Amino acid sequence: MSDDQAPLLRTVNVSRDYPLAGEIVHAVRGVSLDIRDGEYCAIVGPSGCGKSSLLNLLGAIDRPSRGAVELRGRDVSGMSDRQATDFRLRNIGFVFQRFYLMPMLSASENVELPMAEAGVGKRERRARAASLLSYVGLGVRTRHRPSQLSGGEQQRVAIARALANRPALLLADEPTGELDAHTGREMIALFGRLNADGTTLVVVTHDEALAQAAHRVVHMVDGRIVSDESNGFPTPPGGSGA
Hints:
The chain has seven helices and ten strands. By secondary structure, the chain is of the alpha/beta class. A hairpin with a 2-residue loop joins strand 4 and strand 5 (74-75).
Protein backbone atom coordinates (compact mmCIF):
# COMPACT_ATOMS: atom_id res chain seq x y z
CA MET A 1 0.00 0.00 0.00
CA SER A 2 1.50 3.37 -1.03
CA ASP A 3 1.63 6.35 1.32
CA ASP A 4 -1.25 8.15 -0.39
CA GLN A 5 -3.43 5.06 0.11
CA ALA A 6 -2.45 4.47 3.73
CA PRO A 7 -5.45 4.39 6.11
CA LEU A 8 -6.08 7.30 8.42
CA LEU A 9 -6.55 4.85 11.31
CA ARG A 10 -5.20 1.32 11.64
CA THR A 11 -5.31 -1.31 14.36
CA VAL A 12 -3.01 -4.30 14.10
CA ASN A 13 -4.08 -7.41 16.01
CA VAL A 14 -5.26 -5.33 18.97
CA SER A 15 -6.39 -7.00 22.18
CA ARG A 16 -7.48 -5.59 25.53
CA ASP A 17 -7.65 -7.67 28.70
CA TYR A 18 -9.03 -6.56 32.07
CA PRO A 19 -8.64 -8.25 35.45
CA LEU A 20 -12.02 -8.72 37.11
CA ALA A 21 -12.72 -10.63 40.35
CA GLY A 22 -9.59 -12.70 40.01
CA GLU A 23 -10.22 -13.53 36.36
CA ILE A 24 -9.16 -12.01 33.05
CA VAL A 25 -11.85 -10.52 30.81
CA HIS A 26 -10.88 -10.49 27.13
CA ALA A 27 -12.79 -7.39 26.02
CA VAL A 28 -11.11 -7.03 22.61
CA ARG A 29 -9.51 -10.01 20.89
CA GLY A 30 -7.09 -9.61 18.01
CA VAL A 31 -8.89 -6.86 16.09
CA SER A 32 -7.32 -5.54 12.89
CA LEU A 33 -9.21 -2.65 11.32
CA ASP A 34 -8.42 0.07 8.77
CA ILE A 35 -10.40 3.32 8.52
CA ARG A 36 -9.80 5.48 5.47
CA ASP A 37 -9.86 9.27 5.41
CA GLY A 38 -13.45 10.39 4.79
CA GLU A 39 -15.02 7.07 5.81
CA TYR A 40 -18.19 6.67 7.89
CA CYS A 41 -18.09 3.42 9.86
CA ALA A 42 -20.55 2.05 12.44
CA ILE A 43 -19.47 -0.60 14.96
CA VAL A 44 -22.40 -2.68 16.20
CA GLY A 45 -22.99 -5.76 18.32
CA PRO A 46 -24.65 -6.94 21.55
CA SER A 47 -23.96 -5.32 24.90
CA GLY A 48 -20.63 -6.43 26.31
CA CYS A 49 -19.18 -7.42 22.94
CA GLY A 50 -16.26 -4.97 23.21
CA LYS A 51 -17.52 -2.08 21.04
CA SER A 52 -16.84 0.70 23.53
CA SER A 53 -13.57 -0.91 24.63
CA LEU A 54 -12.42 -0.88 21.00
CA LEU A 55 -13.52 2.74 20.59
CA ASN A 56 -11.45 3.72 23.64
CA LEU A 57 -8.44 2.07 22.02
CA LEU A 58 -9.07 3.86 18.71
CA GLY A 59 -9.23 7.16 20.55
CA ALA A 60 -6.08 6.62 22.63
CA ILE A 61 -8.15 6.78 25.82
CA ASP A 62 -6.94 3.29 26.67
CA ARG A 63 -3.90 1.23 25.69
CA PRO A 64 -4.06 -2.25 24.16
CA SER A 65 -2.71 -5.24 26.05
CA ARG A 66 -1.27 -6.42 22.74
CA GLY A 67 -1.09 -5.04 19.22
CA ALA A 68 -0.85 -1.47 17.94
CA VAL A 69 -3.12 1.46 17.11
CA GLU A 70 -1.88 3.94 14.50
CA LEU A 71 -3.44 7.28 13.56
CA ARG A 72 -1.91 9.21 10.69
CA GLY A 73 0.99 6.78 10.82
CA ARG A 74 1.75 7.41 14.50
CA ASP A 75 1.63 4.58 17.01
CA VAL A 76 -0.64 6.06 19.67
CA SER A 77 -0.71 2.85 21.75
CA GLY A 78 2.83 3.43 23.01
CA MET A 79 2.43 7.07 24.03
CA SER A 80 2.78 8.30 27.59
CA ASP A 81 -0.35 9.64 29.30
CA ARG A 82 0.73 13.23 28.63
CA GLN A 83 1.54 12.53 24.99
CA ALA A 84 -1.77 10.72 24.48
CA THR A 85 -3.73 13.58 26.08
CA ASP A 86 -2.11 16.15 23.81
CA PHE A 87 -2.55 13.92 20.75
CA ARG A 88 -6.26 13.41 21.47
CA LEU A 89 -6.77 17.13 21.97
CA ARG A 90 -5.37 17.96 18.54
CA ASN A 91 -6.37 14.96 16.44
CA ILE A 92 -9.49 13.23 17.78
CA GLY A 93 -12.98 14.48 18.60
CA PHE A 94 -15.30 12.57 20.94
CA VAL A 95 -19.08 12.49 21.23
CA PHE A 96 -20.65 10.44 24.01
CA GLN A 97 -24.12 9.17 24.94
CA ARG A 98 -24.14 11.63 27.85
CA PHE A 99 -23.16 15.06 26.74
CA TYR A 100 -20.60 15.98 29.44
CA LEU A 101 -21.07 19.72 29.01
CA MET A 102 -19.89 22.10 31.72
CA PRO A 103 -23.17 23.22 33.36
CA MET A 104 -22.01 26.72 34.35
CA LEU A 105 -20.70 27.56 30.88
CA SER A 106 -22.65 28.76 27.87
CA ALA A 107 -22.85 26.74 24.67
CA SER A 108 -20.17 28.94 23.13
CA GLU A 109 -17.90 28.63 26.16
CA ASN A 110 -18.26 24.85 26.12
CA VAL A 111 -17.19 24.74 22.48
CA GLU A 112 -14.27 27.06 23.21
CA LEU A 113 -12.85 24.84 25.98
CA PRO A 114 -10.76 22.44 23.84
CA MET A 115 -9.47 25.37 21.79
CA ALA A 116 -8.36 27.16 24.95
CA GLU A 117 -6.56 23.99 26.05
CA ALA A 118 -4.82 23.89 22.65
CA GLY A 119 -3.64 27.49 23.03
CA VAL A 120 -5.96 29.10 20.47
CA GLY A 121 -6.43 32.85 20.98
CA LYS A 122 -9.69 34.23 22.38
CA ARG A 123 -10.81 36.01 19.20
CA GLU A 124 -10.24 32.93 17.05
CA ARG A 125 -11.93 30.71 19.64
CA ARG A 126 -15.06 32.84 19.70
CA ALA A 127 -15.28 33.04 15.93
CA ARG A 128 -14.75 29.29 15.54
CA ALA A 129 -17.33 28.48 18.26
CA ALA A 130 -19.91 30.76 16.64
CA SER A 131 -19.28 29.16 13.24
CA LEU A 132 -19.59 25.61 14.59
CA LEU A 133 -22.74 26.32 16.60
CA SER A 134 -24.28 27.83 13.50
CA TYR A 135 -23.21 24.76 11.53
CA VAL A 136 -25.02 22.41 13.94
CA GLY A 137 -28.14 24.61 13.96
CA LEU A 138 -27.62 26.47 17.23
CA GLY A 139 -26.60 29.90 16.00
CA VAL A 140 -29.25 31.54 18.19
CA ARG A 141 -28.38 29.51 21.30
CA THR A 142 -24.74 30.43 21.77
CA ARG A 143 -25.29 32.07 25.18
CA HIS A 144 -27.58 29.40 26.59
CA ARG A 145 -26.34 27.10 29.34
CA PRO A 146 -26.93 23.33 29.10
CA SER A 147 -29.89 23.46 31.50
CA GLN A 148 -31.59 25.83 29.04
CA LEU A 149 -31.16 23.43 26.12
CA SER A 150 -33.01 20.27 25.13
CA GLY A 151 -31.19 16.94 24.98
CA GLY A 152 -30.82 17.21 21.22
CA GLU A 153 -29.48 20.73 21.50
CA GLN A 154 -26.97 19.65 24.15
CA GLN A 155 -25.76 16.87 21.86
CA ARG A 156 -25.34 19.41 19.06
CA VAL A 157 -23.18 21.52 21.36
CA ALA A 158 -21.17 18.40 22.21
CA ILE A 159 -20.65 17.71 18.49
CA ALA A 160 -19.55 21.30 17.89
CA ARG A 161 -17.12 20.98 20.80
CA ALA A 162 -15.75 17.72 19.35
CA LEU A 163 -15.03 19.52 16.07
CA ALA A 164 -13.43 22.56 17.68
CA ASN A 165 -9.79 21.67 16.99
CA ARG A 166 -10.48 20.31 13.48
CA PRO A 167 -9.81 16.66 14.41
CA ALA A 168 -8.70 14.10 11.85
CA LEU A 169 -11.19 11.65 13.32
CA LEU A 170 -14.55 11.94 15.10
CA LEU A 171 -15.49 9.06 17.43
CA ALA A 172 -19.02 8.71 18.80
CA ASP A 173 -20.19 6.27 21.48
CA GLU A 174 -23.99 5.71 21.39
CA PRO A 175 -24.60 9.35 20.33
CA THR A 176 -28.38 8.85 19.98
CA GLY A 177 -28.76 6.75 23.12
CA GLU A 178 -30.19 9.56 25.29
CA LEU A 179 -32.44 11.03 22.59
CA ASP A 180 -36.05 10.44 21.57
CA ALA A 181 -36.76 8.97 18.13
CA HIS A 182 -37.41 12.30 16.38
CA THR A 183 -34.32 13.96 17.82
CA GLY A 184 -32.32 10.83 17.04
CA ARG A 185 -33.28 11.13 13.38
CA GLU A 186 -32.13 14.74 13.40
CA MET A 187 -28.80 13.66 14.87
CA ILE A 188 -28.40 10.95 12.24
CA ALA A 189 -28.95 13.55 9.54
CA LEU A 190 -26.33 15.80 11.15
CA PHE A 191 -23.77 12.98 11.20
CA GLY A 192 -24.48 12.35 7.53
CA ARG A 193 -23.89 16.00 6.77
CA LEU A 194 -20.65 16.01 8.76
CA ASN A 195 -19.37 13.05 6.78
CA ALA A 196 -20.47 14.52 3.46
CA ASP A 197 -18.48 17.63 4.38
CA GLY A 198 -15.34 15.54 4.91
CA THR A 199 -15.36 14.41 8.55
CA THR A 200 -14.14 10.86 9.16
CA LEU A 201 -16.59 9.16 11.52
CA VAL A 202 -16.56 5.99 13.60
CA VAL A 203 -19.70 5.43 15.69
CA VAL A 204 -20.53 2.70 18.21
CA THR A 205 -24.27 2.19 18.31
CA HIS A 206 -27.26 -0.01 19.08
CA ASP A 207 -29.38 2.32 16.92
CA GLU A 208 -30.21 0.41 13.72
CA ALA A 209 -31.12 3.60 11.86
CA LEU A 210 -27.77 5.18 12.72
CA ALA A 211 -25.90 2.04 11.67
CA GLN A 212 -27.74 1.92 8.35
CA ALA A 213 -26.85 5.55 7.68
CA ALA A 214 -23.14 4.72 7.84
CA HIS A 215 -21.29 3.61 4.72
CA ARG A 216 -19.78 0.58 6.46
CA VAL A 217 -20.95 -1.61 9.33
CA VAL A 218 -18.54 -3.65 11.45
CA HIS A 219 -20.18 -6.34 13.61
CA MET A 220 -18.53 -7.46 16.85
CA VAL A 221 -19.23 -10.52 18.99
CA ASP A 222 -17.20 -11.55 22.05
CA GLY A 223 -14.47 -9.01 21.38
CA ARG A 224 -13.92 -10.03 17.76
CA ILE A 225 -14.99 -8.62 14.41
CA VAL A 226 -17.28 -11.21 12.82
CA SER A 227 -18.31 -9.24 9.73
CA ASP A 228 -17.34 -6.04 7.92
CA GLU A 229 -19.90 -4.94 5.35
CA SER A 230 -20.51 -2.00 3.03
CA ASN A 231 -23.92 -0.35 3.10
CA GLY A 232 -23.53 0.46 -0.58
CA PHE A 233 -22.76 4.16 -0.17
CA PRO A 234 -19.76 5.68 -1.94
CA THR A 235 -17.02 6.84 0.43
CA PRO A 236 -16.52 10.59 -0.02
CA PRO A 237 -13.02 11.94 -0.57
CA GLY A 238 -11.22 12.99 2.60
CA GLY A 239 -11.40 16.61 3.58
CA SER A 240 -10.89 19.02 6.41
CA GLY A 241 -14.45 18.57 7.65
CA ALA A 242 -16.44 21.21 9.50
